[in-house]
Write a structure and sequence with these properties.
Blueprint: H1 5-15, H2 23-36, E1 44-50, E2 53-59, E3 77-83, E4 85-86, E5 89-90, H3 91-95, H4 104-107, E6 117-124, H5 134-146, E7 150-155, E8 160-165, E9 168-173, H6 188-194, H7 196-203, H8 210-222, E10 230-232, E11 252-255, H9 276-280, E12 283-290, H10 300-323, E13 331-337, H11 346-358, E14 362-366
Parallel strand pairs: 3-6, 6-7, 12-13, 13-14
Antiparallel strand pairs: 1-2, 2-3, 4-5, 7-8, 8-9, 10-11, 11-12
Length: 370
């Protein structure tokens, strides 16, 4: 199947105005559109690891077997995303300088990728003040040409986006239509417990944990959860745990269907206008995800300790959220994906299930045989 990145990019921008928040949401939106357009989940890697450097999204040819740790699998296309909320700031302000230079050009200079197409995709969020000026846009195009990249830029809510190839900037029209509200067709727990396709998908990829988050996000979108309702790696000001406030955040959160997509910490980037109360009033579920290629050789005891640590994290989060105004109906979910050759020992699994149940946490385990 031909990989039409230009077509996906256009649809991506048509969907990218539905929220203000972190860059990880951009990754997830793009990933879900790749699946929608017929790419196989075994050819799309999130947080693709090359020499301990993580690349946002790598797309492989359709003969890829889903083993994203295999160095013989060379990506067809590599994509780095820039944009999103970073505290009070627009992340583009920190990552693309006035000369249009971005350090990600060096990140993807590995000779292994000489034959791979490389994209730098930037999304400006005007709620946090527009970062890229017209002169910067020209400089970005020139930098992309020097580094053999395709550069693309979009400012949310605008009718046009830009693609620069070989130093020439092309302005392109978008067809943005107000989304038609649709009733959700599945509850998050029904999806995790009953979606056989999701379980199979997680079991035939080998890579970063972020792939599982992207697959779940795609299932939620297929079940008519709107873009303003689902966020990844969401920051809350209340998360002042052990002096590491900005390091602790749920892997995925779900808001109710009236939420406006303001996932960022502060309204308009103003520290005097924190968004916590706004988010907590609409919060429906927090989800912690555990499972990656790095755990394929883990012992049962190591997994047990990791699972217990994540449950402790969820208990801490649940208590903090409830104490600060979240609904008592808040779902707290721990989803473990175990792709080792054999599932965890049944007695250990029962211990984990009991620990989760005692603390009002829904525990879902995907093993090879369960």
């Amino acid at each position: 199947m031909m990989i039409d990145i230009h077509g996906i990019i256009q649809e991506f921008y048509e969907n990218a105005s539905g929220f203000c928040g972190g860059e990880h949401v951009l990754h997830a939106i793009f990933y879900s559109l790749c699946l929608k357009r017929g790419l196989n989940h075994q050819q799309i890697a999130r947080e693709y690891n090359v020499d301990k450097t993580l690349i946002d999204i790598a797309i492989f040819n359709d003969d890829c077997d889903g083993d994203f740790t295999n160095p013989n699998n060379i990506p067809h296309t590599l994509i780095e995303f820039k944009g999103g909320a970073y505290g009070t700031r627009n992340a583009l302000k920190d990552t693309i300088d006035k000369n249009g230079y971005c350090s990600d050009y060096v990140k993807l200079s590995n000779p292994r990728f000489n034959e791979s197409a490389k994209w730098l995709v930037a999304v400006d969020m005007p709620e946090l003040k527009v970062s890229i000026t017209d002169s910067q846009l020209i400089n970005c195009a020139l930098q992309a040409e020097r580094n053999n990249f395709i550069f693309s830029y979009y400012c949310q809510h605008k009718p046009d986006y830009y693609v620069s190839e070989k130093g020439t900037i092309h302005k392109k029209k978008l067809s943005i239509k107000p989304p038609t509200p649709k009733a959700r067709t599945s509850d998050i727990l029904d999806i995790l417990n009953g979606n056989v396709t999701l379980k199979k998908q997680t079991q035939n990829i080998n890579g970063h944990e972020a792939n599982n988050a992207a697959l779940l996000y795609s299932c939620l979108r297929d079940s008519h959860y709107a873009i303003p309702e689902v966020s990844l790696e969401t920051y809350f000001n209340l998360a002042n745990f052990n002096g590491k406030r900005m390091q602790s955040r749920p892997d995925l959160v779900i808001f109710n269907n009236s939420f406006d997509g303001c996932f960022n910490l502060y309204k308009n980037g103003d520290k005097s206008l924190p968004n916590d109360a706004h988010k907590l009033s609409a919060l429906e579920a927090i989800i912690e995800i555990k499972g990656s290629a790095g755990l394929n050789n883990a012992t049962d005891n190591k997994l047990k300790k990791l699972y217990e640590a994540d449950i402790a994290k969820l208990i801490m989060w649940r208590n903090a959220l409830l104490n600060n105004g979240a609904s008592g109906l808040l779902k707290t979910i721990f989803w473990a994906v175990d792709n080792r050759k054999s599932p965890i020992n049944i007695n250990i699994l029962d211990e984990i299930k009991k620990l989760a149940m005692m603390n009002d946490i829904e525990f879902i385990y995907y093993g090879r045989i369960t």
